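Re: zinc ion structure - here you go.
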Amino acid sequence: MECVRIGCSRAGARPDVGDNGRVTLYRDEGVVLRTQKLGEADRIVTVLTRRSGRIRAAAKGVRKTKSRFGARLEPFTHVDLQLYERRSLDLITQAETLRPYGERLVVDYPRYTAGTAMLETAEKLTAAEREPALRQFLLLVGGLRTLADGSHDPRLVLDAFLLRSLSVAGWAPALDECSRCGDRGQLRGFSIAGGGAMCARCRQPGTATPAPPTFALMLALLRGEWDYADDSEQRHRVECSGLVAAYLQWHLEHGIRSLRHVERDTGTREHREVAAETARARPGAPDASGGGAGGGYGDGDFDVDGYGPDDPAGPGGTTDRETV
Ligand SMILES: [Zn+2]
């Protein structure tokens, strides 16, 4: 963050005071999550930034056709911003496109809906404004990049993003051990309310019973093991998507609306079963013994930006080119 002094004639003014002629400008990069109309020609832009977490800022005149940076402030765009700090909404004074992910996504419906669900999830999981959320930011950039480059099934990319986002939020589901007793033997059920996988002894009637390869697929997506995920069968992908969506919806107070569009494409009996379990589980609190929160995935084996081995725009690439 830098302070730029503009038109201040008072010597010795306190550097942190914004009302006496000092203007505080700062730079940050971020992904545009959402825009809303503001007045005649302006917009409020919601951005998940690298350093400041989720922010909402005003962009003046961007709805005029000749706007310089209107197009740079559309959802999905990874932008480098300069902002003017104000008491209410900060004002965006400059925007430079780092990666226009939206261009690649809007022309492909499955990728677009998956991307939209990612943006919405990132917003919901960063509940408080201006609370740094670096891991969530890196996940989002990595997820959009992978989605845009088209190297994997968009639904797999979305599910990997959702599972990792849940992990970052502290809600990783148990996948390779029973969420109740910790047994790593044969896992039979998946309990949305109970924190994930359950062994035959702990499994309660009515919980979903995914196929073993579905557990393996979820684990592979969480860990970024794409060789395994890319070889998975369609039925296991569908089952995985249903469980991940239900698990996410259960953890968020006001679900992810855009997931409905994604699910419509793969809606099956499994989805309905899981949805029914979610509906039943909803009224109560999660089982206190459910060990799903930790899930056994520490920072060490969780690469937040690891969507693929070749990461040209990873933290060492263009996304990091700005240094303030
Ligand atoms: Zn058990």
